Amino acid sequence: MEIEFAKMEGIGNDFIFIDDRAGKIESYRPYPELAQRLCSRHFGIGADGIILILKSQDHDIRFRIYNSDGSEAQMCGNGMRCFAKLLYEKKIISKKIFTVDTKAGTVVPEVITDDGGLVRSVRVDMGEPILLCRDIPFKSPNERALDEPLIVGGKEYRITTVSMGNPHAVIFVEDLESVDVETIGRSIETHERFPEKTNVEFIEVVSKTELKMKVWERGAGITLACGTGACAVLVAAHLTGRTEDRALIHLTGGDLEIHWDKATNHVFKTGPATLVFEGRVRI
Q1: Is position 39 annotated as part of the catalytic site?
Q2: Enclosing domain of residue 233
Q3: 78-111 confidence digits (pLDDT tens)
Q4: 234 shares its domain with 275
Q5: Residues 110 and 166 in one domain
Q6: What pTM did the predictor assign?
Q7: CATH number reported for the structural domain that contains residue 200 in this entry
Q8: Where are the beta strands (DSSP E) in the chain?
Q9: Which of 39, 82, 133, 226 is the catalytic position?
Q10: Residues 137, 205 share a domain
Q11: Could you tell me the pLDDT band of residue 202, with boundaries at 50, 70 and 90?
């Protein structure tokens, strides 16, 4: 079976997009197996994950994402920006603001276009942050985990936990470049206190409105960017008094502007999305 795909990236976080609104692809090959095969950077197309365009009963469209290891994620901020751009420019969706059904709930992206009708950037309403440890989930004696100690390999790390539909452990460091992201990230991802594993963000505070970030993603490892992670980071930084409620976050692949609107308690993320190439692949 041959299928069409689009390869896209959002500040270096890359994805393979597949339109399976007819349901034929899933009946031919399970999505987890398809993700592992197509995401291989040596034997496939290469990506951090695959994103499916699916029909929804009560939203404008449905979004599902599988990591490169075949595991399913609830949501992906960078992937959602690419998703919105692709849908609008391919005329699958004609509205500039629309509703998306995700495993993390309803997400509302807004495409910002240039004079030629091409998507210049995407602003995504990422919804409300989840702060209660039991809902993240994170095993803790406290209701919220703010700079809470976590012992990993005999060393203590201070973590702040936030969920943006998927769990995040945020660690503030003095020197981001000196952090062993892979070793520490892998250990915290699979720590017993995170029943569903976790994404791990390492943050250096530049100022009250500027942060530098590196990420270890659950199910994908080190990536160039993580949109839900950037949102979780802004929330964690603001809650611990390190930033205002809006900040520019510098990730390895590029920058994201994050705003936690206290009036609505929603987190908004604005950034670019780029089509890399399109093609056909035999599955």
Answers
A1: no
A2: 133-264
A3: 999 999 999 999 999 999 999 999 999 999 999 9
A4: no
A5: no
A6: 0.87
A7: 3.10.310.10
A8: 2-10, 13-19, 49-54, 61-67, 72-73, 100-102, 105-113, 119-125, 148-152, 155-163, 167-172, 199-207, 210-217, 221-223, 246-251, 254-261, 266-271, 274-282
A9: 226
A10: yes
A11: very high
Catalytic residue, candidates 39, 76, 82, 133: 76
How many Cα atoms sit within 13 Å of 247 on the Cβ side? 28
How high is the pLDDT of residue 21? 98
Q: How confident is the model at residue 223 (pLDDT cuts 50, 70, 90)?
A: very high
Active site annotation includes 226: yes
Residues 157 and 241 occupy one common structural domain? yes
Is 246 in the same domain as 172? yes
* Predicted pLDDT of residue 213: 98
Amino acid 93: pLDDT: 97
Q: Are residues 120 and 22 in the same domain?
A: yes
Say if residue 217 is in the same domain as residue 120: no
